[in-house]
Design a protein that fits this description.
Blueprint (H helix, E strand, L loop, with lengths): L18 E4 L2 E3 L9 E5 L2 E5 L5 H14 L5 E5 L5 H4 L9 E5 H8 L3 H9 L5 H6 L10 E3 L2 E6 L2 E7 L8 E5 L4 E5 L15 H12 L5 E4 L9 H21 L4 H13 L9 H26 L17
Parallel strand pairs: 4-5, 5-6, 6-7, 11-12
Antiparallel strand pairs: 1-2, 2-3, 3-4, 8-9, 9-10, 10-11
Length: 318
């Protein structure tokens, strides 16, 4: 059995200390793009999400290896296919990546153009941009459809597809420890990224999470929270759905709806001045998505044949 090296002060790398949630279960809330975690088992390490920025991904690997220097990496679970959760997979090889089957479809389609867009998103931060010159996409080696369970070294790790945030979003549930990695289903004091969302699925996912009996939730971004945090996200989504429906039934088009409601939605969560333009753009992407949902729902009520509901190809949330 691997022995934990406890004499070394945890995580003194200048990139944020890892935080122990329970024996052998750690997260780091200091990285950009996602809050990664790892779970120690007697057979090896199971990780949840990979930091986007290479220096942070390598730091995270070093922190894991410092905690359990003799443990192999068993799995990297990606809670969805977005860059903030999955682009760092390359820094944890050799490991088997596991995610929902839709994540495999999306990541297998990432092109050189996608990589260039990632690099360009950091054009105002050249030090980070330079780190992204050698992006290697590692799609999932293993996929699941609805549920899967990993049973290693006395641990049970349940993977549960929920959708909602993206067509690939999954959560990671530790039933013995009552800890749930909820990916981007739950956002704490932040505007959720909704450009690839399905709001009815999302609301069902929040209810499922509430009913797990979890003691703590680890959102895809930000600090640990309790199940009550699901209510505020749900209220935000329900409010957006109601207001978009109001506008739609008044005969407003998509652009009028976005322009009219972005200010109302902006008031829900604090927004730093330097991020206001980006958050407004993000909210508009969500309103665009919800407008199409409401349009489809109202057309179905009226017996109008819908032209389908695409999954969108908007930029992701990192």
């Amino acid at each position: 059995m691997a022995r934990r090296r406890s004499a070394v002060r945890i995580g003194m790398t200048g990139l944020g200390e890892r935080e122990a949630l329970a024996p052998g279960i750690f997260i780091n809330t200091n990285y950009r793009g996602c809050t990664p975690g790892f779970i120690y088992t007697d057979e090896g390490i199971i990780m949840v999400d990979a930091p986007l920025i290479p220096k942070q991904a390598m730091d995270w690997r070093e922190q894991i290896e410092a905690e359990y220097p003799d443990s192999p990496f068993l799995y990297m679970i990606n809670t969805d296919h977005h860059r903030g959760h999955a682009l760092g997979n390359q820094y944890f090889m050799p490991v088997k990546v596991i995610a929902h089957e839709r994540a495999h479809k999306e990541m297998s389609g990432y092109t050189e153009n996608f990589k260039e867009r990632v690099r360009n998103s950091f054009k105002r931060e050249p030090e980070i941009q330079a780190q992204l010159n050698n992006i290697v996409i590692i799609p999932p080696h293993l996929t699941f459809t609805n549920r899967a369970a990993l049973l290693y070294g006395g641990r049970r790790v349940d993977l549960m597809y929920v959708g909602g945030h993206t067509p690939a979003t999954s959560i990671v549930w530790l039933p013995e420890e009552k800890i749930c990695f909820v990916g981007d289903i739950v956002w704490v004091d932040q505007h959720p990224y909704m450009a690839q969302g399905n709001t009815l699925e999302w609301l069902r996912a929040l209810e499922l999470i509430r009913n797990l009996g979890a003691k703590m939730l680890i959102p895809g971004h930000g600090p640990v929270c309790e199940p009550d945090a699901t209510y505020r996200v749900g209220e935000y989504i329900e409010f957006m759905r109601k207001r978009v429906r109001d506008y739609y039934l008044e005969g407003k088009n998509k652009n009028e709806t976005k322009s009219g409601l972005v200010g109302e939605m902006l008031e829900w969560f604090p927004v730093p001045p330097e991020r206001k333009a980006k958050i407004e753009s993000q909210i508009k992407s969500g309103l665009n998505r919800v407008f199409r949902e409401i349009q489809r729902e109202e057309e179905e009520k009226a017996g109008i044949v819908s032209h389908g509901f695409d999954d969108g190809d908007e930029e992701d949330d990192s």
